[in-house]
Every structure is written in structure tokens, then in C-alpha cells.
Amino acid sequence: MRIIDDDERRTRLAQRHRLLPRLRTDDVVQIADDLVALHSTDPVTAMMSPMVRMKHPSLAIIEQVVYEQRALIRHHAMRRTLWLAPPETMRLMNAATSRKLVAPERRRLLTALARHGVADPDAWLDDARAAILDDLRSHGPSTAREIGQRVEAVRLPLHLAPGKSYASIQGAHSRVIVLLGFEGQILRARPSSWITGAYAYVTAQDWLPDGLGELDEEASAIELARRWLRRFGPGTTTDLQWWMGWTLGLTRRALQGCDAVPVQLAAGAGWIAADEDPVEDDEPWVALLPALDPTTMGWKQRAWYLPDAAAEAFDSVGNGGPTIWVDGRIVGAWAQDKQGQIHLHYFERVAATRRHEIDARVADLKAMVGDTRFSVRFPGDIHARILG
After folding, report:
1. Burial, 58: exposed, middle or buried (Cβ in 10 Å; 0-12, 13-18, 19+)?
2. Rounded to an integer, what distance in angstroms lies between the CA atom of residue 246 and that of residue 218?
3. Is the predicted pLDDT of residue 245 greater than 90, yes or no?
4. Burial level of 59, CB count in 10 A (0-12/13-18/19+)?
5. Which helix (H) or strand (E) holds 13?
6. Cα separation, 289 vs 287, whole angstroms
7. Is 167 left (phi over 0), alpha (psi -120 to 50) or beta?
8. InterPro entries, per this entry (predicted)?
9. What's the confidence (pLDDT) of residue 194?
10. Contact 297, 228 (CB under 8 A)
């Protein structure tokens, strides 16, 4: 059995994810495809992940690709989180992950409606879905607030998770919009700012020709497994199952269906895509990656790129904050303060020459964001201490 050591995995990571300076490109769709998809739960990440991989970082170019060319689509998918991906990839993700979210979300909403006293929750929900879709067809891109103002009949106050620490009261229209998103009926369009999640909504048919389609779940899972291995492999069954949010059974069937080749990793048994040749050592590199960057969040078993000393780059549930990378390993974390200054924290000793390279990336980062101040939705445990 072929053995792939951690050094080769780090080299693959740098090459596949365009973290080597010579591999930067201004093709935003290609960047997203090289990462399978861009994390978008934090809106800042969705813009910064491609910017740090561009030859000429430009927020305007990314927004043009996403909102004018519509060459990247934002939608809920793996692990109930938001992603940004080319339409073909998003259709696969919708079939293999998003559609599973519909039934449990509908049950939760029906329960909340019944608790509110709605006599026929199913009929109410079907009418609300139709009313919101009709409203979007008539008015075009609209925020949840705008929809609620126009379609007053769906603005019931719903008590969600009563008795729980995370209990809340939300307008029913907001939850119906979430359900319509899971169903693939609506998509997120341009927000009010690149650092906010206050998106406008549109019908999928209006935004994307033929919508998200009705692809087969199993076939889509196989193709996604193949793509993940091409971009993130080698990896373990655990890595792929976690990344996709699948059952173990579906993960195994997808690996078998895509003809994954078994390999031996330091972490144990792993898989690589068929016909993958060994890679040679490449040039040294450094990078500052945003929170939830696809590279940081590409694997569940992270020891080969996350030293024990750097564990606080993540939070307690495994979300990675803004990170500093040197040659395929996380060596530090960074944070922007309210004045726009970038602060660094190193988890281990880093040579002065490499720190100078990192300082250059800090300057690049400042140039990218300009005067914009942003918060991190999922900071690592070290984040607050960096800011003092």
C-alpha cells in the first residue's frame, strides 16, 4: 500500500489550494472550484478566501462574479451551513446534502405553528410558502424584513425551542424563508455590505436558469467525494464524512463509487483519488487565512497541519479562526482591532525571515480590506486574547 507522509500532504495542500504565490489567479470561479466550494457562513470569509489567492485581489471582481455573472451560488449545504460554489457544484451539493434538511426543518416549523395555535399548520405553511414565492416573483430581490412587511399574513411571532438556553422568538416568515432555501426554491442575492449576512432573497428560477435541479442523491455524493479527494486528498473516511455531514454508510458508498484508492497516512488508513501521482517538494510559502477558510476547515483529523500548541486557533467545537500558515502548518493566529490594525500571535517560534514574509502578507491584507472593519463570527479561542 502506498504511504503518503505529512510533508507530501502539506505540499499537496499548497498546490491544490493556490497558496503558493506562483499559483495565484484572478479567476474567482477557478479558486472556488479548486476548494470545491467557499465557506460562506461568515460573509467575510466568502470574500477573503478568494482574495488571498488572487494575483490582484479585488472585492469588486468577486462581487461581479457572484452577483452579476452569477457564476457562484450561495446556498445551505453541508452541515447545514452556507457555501458559495459554481452552479454545477451547488446542484450536486443540493442533491447530496441540502434536501435532507427539508423534512426536519418542516417538522420544527409545523410544531412551532401548532404551539402558536394555528389550526391547520400544514395548510398555513403551504399558503405561506406560495405567498412568499409570489411576492419575490413580483418584487425581485428582497430582504426578509421587506418580505415580512409586504406579506403580513406570514408574520406570526413563533416561539422556537421553548425552555432551552437558545430559545427565541422569530417571525414565521423568517423560518419559512429558511425552509424555502433548504428546498432550493430561493437563493441569497447581494447583501447590503460584503461584511454582513443581511442578504436579499430571490427565487432560484429567476437567479439561476433551471434552478438547482433534481439530481440523484447517490450519484451526486459519489461525484462530490471524487472532487473532495482531488482537492483535499489524501484524507480519511472520517475526514470526508465530517466535511460532508453524511452518514458513515453514504460516505463509504461514495468512496467506493468514486474508485478511491487506499493509502497509509500518519493518521491511519486513508484514501486518495485514482491516478494521483506523488508530488515533489515545492517552494516555501506563508499565508494569512480568514476564519473558516476552506483549507483550515478541510479535514476533521488535523494533526498533520495543526500542532498541539496551535489548538487555540480553533474554538471548542472545531471552528477555525483567522490563522497564520507557514509551509503547510498553522503557526499562529491574527485579528483585526476596531482601529483596523492587524495583530499577530505565534504559537511557536518562527524564524525572522519567515516573519518578514508574514508582515508582507499583513500589508496585503490591509490593502485588501482598506478602511473596512469586520468582526469574526466564529473566532478561535485565542482571538479575544490577541485583541487584549
Report:
1. middle
2. 11
3. yes
4. middle
5. helix 6-16
6. 6
7. beta
8. AlkZ-like
9. 97
10. no
